Amino acid sequence: MNTIITKLDPENIDTAVIEKAAEIIGMGGLVAFPTETVYGLGADAERADVAEKIYKAKGRPSDNPLIIHIAKAEDAEKYAYTNELYYKLTNAFSPGPLTVILPKKDTVPDTVTGGLDTVAIRIPSNKIARALIERAGVAIAAPSANTSGKPSPTEASHVIEDLSGKADMIIDGGASEIGLESTVVKVDESSILLLRPGAVDVEMLRAVCENVTVSSAILEKLKAGQKAESPGMMYKHYAPDIPVYLVEGDESKVVEFFRQKLENNPKTGILCYIDSRDTVFGENVKYLDRSPIKQANVLFAYLRDYNSSTASEVYSVIPDSDGVGLAVLNRLMRAAGFQIIKV
Ligand code: TXA
Ligand code: MG
Question: Does domain 4-180 sit in CATH 3.40.50.150?
Answer without folding.
Answer: no
